[in-house]
Design brief:
Radius of gyration: 22 Å
Shape: globular
Structural class: alpha+beta
Largest sheet: 7 strands, mixed
Number of helices: 11
Strand content: 15-25%
Length: 343
């Protein structure tokens, strides 16, 4: 049955902007007594209000071990916290550093998680539109970088005062030999459309029983209608780890149980498998890897901070601050010399 009780305790804490989804666990066992649910709500409230530095000073261990040592009933951990953290960290075994797990729960409990309206490309496109024409160049393949130049396959060498490498960990390691490349968590995302959306509300369903390949799923069109084809509903589902051989069939069978409806007439819109989707953050994990490699050469991405969107953005802020400081322009950008970016 759907475990609603614990979610009522944290629903107020999980409020976010319009494009948000409140997680609900789908489990065959209760999440615990009213006292257990109150403890969970109190624990998440403490996390939401705790200073980040205090969380970073906690003893570090694998997240699964740390959860077992926090005094939370096992049924609450297995019925809600474990599947929630697996969804937030893309790590079904919870080998991730407990400090990273605490930061993820801190963001969730503080209501700071949301979906960008229009999809993941909306934010960079919005930022690009605010820059002068010709500032950003896409579809350009970079073959090598140095502190004062970038060599591209299409346009040869581009001279510059500084280079910021903002890519995934594997590409960063190829362009900067010697840079540490972490392990990765594979992720498969499937999109299905149908005539009428299942009746779940704007919620993220978590499979606490792990009875199939789907870790979490949501009717995304109820949150952001612009993502679905006209007149259709869109369900997006995530499989963590190595997917089964016939992933679409296995996922459809699992979704039928999770949503309590037939998926036979659902149309598969897309299946995306990314073997190196999320950098692993096993304990011990350095949350602040250097972003300034040399004067004039900088790197940012989720592999320099935490393997989350927030971590990637935070590393970018650290790198940008270092660049402006080194160029003597801290606090302002030199608008007379536009930044040239190849993506």
């Amino acid at each position: 049955r759907r475990a609603r009780g614990a979610l009522h305790a944290v629903r107020a804490l999980a409020s976010a902007p319009r494009a948000s989804a409140v997680p609900r666990a789908r489990t065959g066992a209760p999440l615990g007594t009213a006292v257990d649910q109150a403890r969970l709500g109190a624990a998440l409230a403490r996390l939401a209000s705790a200073p980040v530095e205090r969380l970073l000073n906690r003893p570090e261990a694998p997240a699964a071990q740390a959860l077992a040592e926090r005094g939370i009933p096992p049924r609450t951990i297995e019925g809600f916290l474990r599947p929630l953290l697996a969804a937030l960290l893309y790590d079904p075994e919870l080998t991730t550093s407990s400090r990273c797990a605490d930061l993820a729960l801190h963001a969730f409990a503080g209501g700071r998680l949301c979906l960008p309206e229009g999809g993941a490309d909306a934010l960079p496109e919005l930022l690009a539109r605010s820059l002068p024409p010709g500032t950003v160049h896409t579809g350009v393949r970079v073959t090598s970088i140095a502190t004062t130049a970038v060599t591209t396959a299409e346009h040869g060498e581009i001279r510059c005062r500084a280079v910021l490498l903002a890519t995934d960990a594997r590409t960063a390691g190829e362009l900067l030999p010697g840079l540490r490349v972490p392990g990765f968590h594979p992720v498969t995302v499937l999109h299905h459309t149908m005539d009428e959306a299942p009746d779940t509300g704007a919620s993220l369903l978590l499979d606490a029983d792990r009875s199939g390949p789907v870790a979490h799923t949501a009717v995304i069109s109820l949150v952001d209608p612009s993502r679905a084809p006209a007149g259709r509903a869109l369900v997006t589902s995530t499989v963590l780890g190595t997917p089964p051989p016939d992933v679409d069939t296995a996922v459809r069978m699992h979704l039928a149980r999770l949503y309590g409806t037939s998926t036979a007439r659902w149309e598969t819109l897309a299946v995306h498998h990314t073997p190196e989707a999320v950098p692993a953050m096993t304990a011990p994990h350095d949350l602040r890897r250097p972003v300034r490699l040399l004067a004039g050469l900088y790197v940012c991405g989720d592999h320099r901070d935490t393997s989350t969107v927030q971590g990637a953005l935070h590393s970018a802020r650290r790198a940008t601050t270092a660049i402006l400081t080194d160029l003597g322009a801290a606090g302002s950008l030199n608008r007379s010399e536009p930044l040239r970016t190849a993506a």
